[in-house]
């Protein structure tokens, strides 16, 4: 099975990144989600404060990555270009994102990238750093992050699990308020939420 879809916005001559990565869920963090998926650019609505938060993270020295489960793709609900059109609109509104990773799979596809699995985060880390976490032990200790400031922002436990698996600081938000809800904690270098994946 193919892995996640990666949309990469890095210069050709980009050197390996040694700084922190902010892994962000999309729906409920940057834009409002929908039980019926966001199916077109027209349905995309940013959550207030999301653009300012992403801009601030960039100023703080983070590479910005979106990691989003979008099983509508494997369900066959969309044309292949739909995800790219939605992400073009998102970046028009919020600014360019370094890497966008999309898992197109359903639960029953049993892939390694659908959150709570950390495959998208690891693919982003490989893309930016040339290294990542090679395995996950859900019953062990939380692994050490590659960079101590790595963080994951999401509205669901599955986001927190995926971030836990790469040792990231975890910031869970309400889907109504999105990333703006935790921006000040991130600015303060808060150690993140306590979370156990099992
Ligand atoms: Zn997947």
In short:
The chain is α/β, with parallel strands linked by helices and 198 residues long.
Secondary structure layout:
Elements: E1 5-8, E2 21-24, H1 50-59, E3 63-69, H2 82-94, E4 99-103, H3 119-129, E5 151-154, H4 157-164, E6 169-172, H5 183-187
Parallel strand pairs: 2-3, 2-5, 3-4, 5-6
Antiparallel strand pairs: 1-4
Bound molecules: zinc ion.
Residues 4, 103, 105, 111, 113-114 line the site of zinc ion.
By secondary-structure content and strand pairing, the structural class works out as: alpha/beta
Main sheet: strands, sense, barrel: 6 strands, mixed
- pLDDT < 50 stretches: none
Number of domains: 1
Rounded to the nearest angstrom, the radius of gyration is: 15 Å
Helix content: 10-25%
CATH superfamily: HAD superfamily/HAD-like
Strand content: 5-15%
Number of strands: 6
Strand order of the largest sheet: 1-4-3-2-5-6
Please report the distance between the alpha carbons of the first and last residues: 27 Å
Q: What overall form do the CA principal axes indicate?
A: globular
Walk me through this protein's architecture.
The protein is of the alpha/beta class. It has a single domain, classed as 3-Layer(aba) Sandwich (Rossmann fold), CATH 3.40.50. Helices cover 24% and strands 14% of the residues. It has 5 helices and 6 strands; from the N terminus they run E-E-H-E-H-E-H-E-H-E-H. Strands 1-4-3-2-5-6 form a 6-stranded mixed β-sheet. The protein starts with a strand and ends in an 11-residue tail after the last helix. The site of zinc ion (ZN) has 6 residues, from loops.
